[in-house]
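RETRY 2/3 - previous attempt timed out on the joint model. Re-submitting the same 1602-residue input unchanged.
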Amino acid sequence: MRISPIHGAPFLSKGLFGAKGNGLMEMARLGIPVPAGFILSKEAFTEGSSALDRDSFQALVRHAMLQLEIETKLGFGQQDFPLIVSVRSGAEVSMPGMMDTFLNIGLTPKTYKGLARRLGESEDALAMTDMMTQLSKTCPWTNDSEDVFEHLWHALDLVKQSWNSARAHAYRTAHGISHQGGTAVVVQAMVFGNLSQHSGTGIVFTRHPLHGTPVLFGEFLPSAQGEALVSGARTPLPLSDVCDRLPLVHSQLKTIAKTLEQHYGDMQEIEFTIQHGTLWILQTRLGKRSAEAGFHIACDLVHEGLATPQSIVRTMEADVFTQCMHPQLVSQVGLEEIGQGLAASPGAASGLLTFDPSSLKDKTNYILLRPETAPEDIPAMMASQGVITLRGGMTSHAAVIMRGMGKPCILSLEAHQWKEDHVCSKHHLLYPGEMITLDGTTGRVFRGQGRVQNATFSSEGLKVLDWADGFRRMKVYANAETPSEITMAQSLGAEGIGLCRTEHMMLSPQSLPVMQEFILASTKEERAKSLEALLPLHQNDLYALLKSAKGQPVTVRLLDPPLHEFLPASQKSALSEVNPMLGHRGCRLGIHFPALYGMQLHALFSSATRLMEEGTRLDLSILIPFIMDPKEFQILKQQIQALKPPSLTCSIGAMIEMPRAALLAGDIAQHADFLSFGTNDLTQMTWGLSRDDYGSFFSDYKALGLQDPFEHIDPIGVGALMTLACERARARSPHIKISVCGEHAGDPKSISFFEDLRIDTISCSPMRIPSARFAAAQAYLEKSPHVLHTASSPFFNVVSS
Amino acid sequence: MRISPIHGAPFLSKGLFGAKGNGLMEMARLGIPVPAGFILSKEAFTEGSSALDRDSFQALVRHAMLQLEIETKLGFGQQDFPLIVSVRSGAEVSMPGMMDTFLNIGLTPKTYKGLARRLGESEDALAMTDMMTQLSKTCPWTNDSEDVFEHLWHALDLVKQSWNSARAHAYRTAHGISHQGGTAVVVQAMVFGNLSQHSGTGIVFTRHPLHGTPVLFGEFLPSAQGEALVSGARTPLPLSDVCDRLPLVHSQLKTIAKTLEQHYGDMQEIEFTIQHGTLWILQTRLGKRSAEAGFHIACDLVHEGLATPQSIVRTMEADVFTQCMHPQLVSQVGLEEIGQGLAASPGAASGLLTFDPSSLKDKTNYILLRPETAPEDIPAMMASQGVITLRGGMTSHAAVIMRGMGKPCILSLEAHQWKEDHVCSKHHLLYPGEMITLDGTTGRVFRGQGRVQNATFSSEGLKVLDWADGFRRMKVYANAETPSEITMAQSLGAEGIGLCRTEHMMLSPQSLPVMQEFILASTKEERAKSLEALLPLHQNDLYALLKSAKGQPVTVRLLDPPLHEFLPASQKSALSEVNPMLGHRGCRLGIHFPALYGMQLHALFSSATRLMEEGTRLDLSILIPFIMDPKEFQILKQQIQALKPPSLTCSIGAMIEMPRAALLAGDIAQHADFLSFGTNDLTQMTWGLSRDDYGSFFSDYKALGLQDPFEHIDPIGVGALMTLACERARARSPHIKISVCGEHAGDPKSISFFEDLRIDTISCSPMRIPSARFAAAQAYLEKSPHVLHTASSPFFNVVSS
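RETRY 2/3 succeeded.
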């Protein structure tokens, strides 16, 4: 164990003293007024008990306390000039609120009067009484003993134990923080803002956290300690109030803010306390900001020379690009919150509640609520403002479709049950026709109409994205089918269409009845007739697709879902399967009904030929879904090649979405031009988890610290198969292109893993493209430490080691 | 290309000349009368066209024909003394009937009269006319030309092409024969049995093929060629007829039979032709025999010193041990065949057809026909004589259950449809109450009552099994739950119970209603009450299980299936899942309802304690199903350890049935005493194939040459994951026990793969135990070439290299 005084030369091994401790030492080094104290390095609290016996540990701490008494000219437990300290955890990675903190250690009935005198307060002043009351509540063990060192040992023990508390453990698991290491502890002399009018506490942001403008912004509570500000119990005053009351302190704060921002190269959020007119800084950290403020600040920082585009891309969170794109609920006035579910697709919307969209024909201002959704609901979902379901998880049908359309969606609305003509929970009944509002960003549902505002990218946001593109290796494509989706995707920076799900085209009002005819046909002749009728419709859809891509690469996937998904519920039974996810779907359909894929290929090639004749450039790929054996790929590749006009070039690829396809990726790669991971299905099969069903029990596993594998790619299971597949494919075909087109391709954490695999292209829903572009750049920078970048040029400079 | 004369010194590279060619050369070497001829090595027919130009090839063949003419003193195409030859394929591994054979090449309108004269026949004798007619039918190209060499080239070309015919390709794929290599070709002078009464053709077995007794057994057709015998167009005479007509030939046959049997060390099936009183041997091969004859012959051969127990175990087919155990249909008299399906569980049975077993209460002589079966049908299946379904594959529910009970079962009865009160195909209607017979060994269904005979092991069969046990490394356990199943399994040689599926216990008439109460309970208290009621029932079942194991190892698996499987169809909806196979099942139930596994453990431990107090020895293991993450195993292991009485020792193991569990087997093995592969589920997830649904389309894949992965383990997909899991598990825990308890554990081909993995224990349904014991021994011998064994002792001798 090591002990470092806050005001002293820091040890070199920075990690040992935690984020908070390092911040304090750094500020002290910069000459900023920080209360005296010392830091116990984290080994004390992980291996302490075994590495250091209790007596030695206490002797070291007593020695540090003695130094602190000398520095502060106060005595710990001393009646007339008592030293009062705080004991705070300080892990290497901040875990706000997860671990214990103890204030006012050293305050006892004996020292209390001395403290009052020292602070120039009456013994029974409100602040004194408050502190004593609170201490006896939060630290009841301080009532038992008059020995203040016992209090200190107790506080240190509890902080140590809180590292292993269930909530801290769950937080670390959820945020991917190591359970090793433990926490450092900061013991610091208390300063008191809860005294005269010349005292107080506040927080200052070095720039405006909502707008990003370069002005000090902050809040201040006179005569209060920090807890009062955090709890929201009292309404704070604006920072200008400090300027009025204590102009010298305000100007000191301004100087400190500038110093810290320049030192850290980013906007800071600084906690301060004023004790009898003296300013003390308690903490500084990266300031939280809105997405738009973040873009503004980033551009300013680069302009001011405090940051570079590269440092911005390395540090900004990719999720902000998704957050700021969706309509947002700007006011909850007049709304009654009636439940919460999974925030499956961000954005906010209001509309009339409906359970059955056919009852609301031609109306578009409705919110669709279903137990779950099916492909036959897609037209209603497209017309709706938003969707709520009572079941399903983050990658369920409803979530995927709504995210694709950029509309809000809330799944598994908790504790609500489906009844004939209403939906009910313990406290709320919901009837069709009611006006409701849903906030897909937070997962909350309200009764009433909320104020919703559309969001767009500012020029600063676009600039930051431009910087990111300069550092990116992976291409970012969109999953899209219709011209409007493609136009939106391209406006958001898509470099191609990585996945066109042709089944979505079969669900149009024109195509669906014909498709149903095909499925229910009992003879080959009837089937041929339906396909003949389907052909011109499919041709039109594919022509529109290829044309709207404007020469960008387009990957068309042949029909994938089980056929009964196209049937209305009443006619499903004939084709129903026990486990449709593992049933007659994907290229199994193509093998069974060669004429079905034949029709699709015919439609595709004739559309392509027409476009070429019209002078449109084409970059076409065909993707074969649900491959389980290289033989399937060979046979269908032959069919494609036999039907392809010789003048057309076209890549042919295999989806890797079955564990077996991953294991045999080498053999498949021998025949394929490219491979595309379908990470949803691969996750389902590797985990034995149905995305339609896992919502009912997976919360058990989250409680155990398991991550939802549909949200972020599972690196050790699914990821291990992907790694193996990439290795085997490249061993057989070194230059084969490999892409990811599952929902994970839009998730920054997963994108970081895909960079490890040197994936060539990621393809996600249009609304997730900006964050995917940014995340891909960030991943590249993170995995490529030798990238150099000059602040003035957003171009690409790689220097390898 | 090489050419070897049949009567000459053979080349050393035996594989090049095919099975048939080698047999002929071997017989010639032994002095057995074989018609003269020569063999073209197989390279001629694979690379021939590229390696050797056509002119050189023909020159070589012409040279060989010249030698043949000299040897036979006949001329090819010569008018007066014409040489007539057969051209036969001869691959390295025999593929009966799959490739082309041409007879009577050299017979033309010109040579025909010469042949007739040569054979002492009139030109228009029946045999001559027949031969000409048949030749012009089977080889119409012989009509076009008078150049007999053109006929020969044509025949050689067709034989070459037939190697790549679709049916030959499919056959090789189905039997795991390499597509490389090609076939050798035998060109041999024809001999004619279709002449005088002193001519004829026949087949002789060196021992009786049905009873195994050491007597010559055979059939003979006077004045006929071999084709007449094979086609069954004429009824043959017994071999004794040859003895009467041609006693010298008969005695010559006896000597040849003895020579060949001694030479090959096993019973032979010999084809012969008698031409004008002269005996010619055309082919010899391993004689086909009934299972019982096989045992008898094996014992005799060892007794006679012609074979050793090791050679018997190496060569006998393991499947015979399953075939001979089931009741067999001994006569089809009075039966009308009405359809065929998958032969899912062997044996034969007759009974009254029923669609709804409740209508036949207390009756047991019925055959149950269902679209498919569900766990709620198990009592009816147990009471039935056999089961037929209209859907499902080899490992579907019905197949697994019926195989477990050793009763016949036919699945996916082809082209039959389910109607309200009858089942129909194009040609047959089936109504409840009809007497029908099913033959689960062949998959055929008949109307009427067939003659069925029970089979048991003869003492010779037991002796052969005993020999096998001496060579076995893997232990063979049974999947069983009830005392009667366990007793049967032990009588068939089970060394333990490798899988007790506790869910089967919950399906008893007493337990099921209580289990249903538990599932449908809405409060924790109601659930606790149901579990309390279930406890004594489960205790009784587990007590009976452990007691009947008589000290053998028992592995009890905690509850595995999704809960709705326990509900009647009418109440399923509340719990129904889209993909139940990947749903809320296995240890997910244990994590969600700790009290459920708690009840099972309580019942198990109290039963075990009672038995220990009664002085019974216990060897208990607990198996946790459906593990997807090491964390699950740790938590449930803690629960088991917390409830386990300290006096009881008990291993705790994890099922590896998810790809992810296989990938993380190292981490799981760190905590587990043993691992057990559930190869059914592992196959479902690795292939993305639902065993309940794949029957509807997998025939497409069989036609492409893919093997059913539920029948034999898939070595490159599922097997690759198993290999990886074994490696990772043993790297972390070198002495961990690894077993297989899926249906594959009863399949000889899969067992051979498990020997490669050095699996410790295989556990299969009781009726498959004898063949599993034998297959395990065979696999061990095959993979361990340095095993030595003395004929006199059935014990284990290993000499490593």
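Confidence is low (pLDDT under 50) at residues 789-801 of chain A. Closing ticket.
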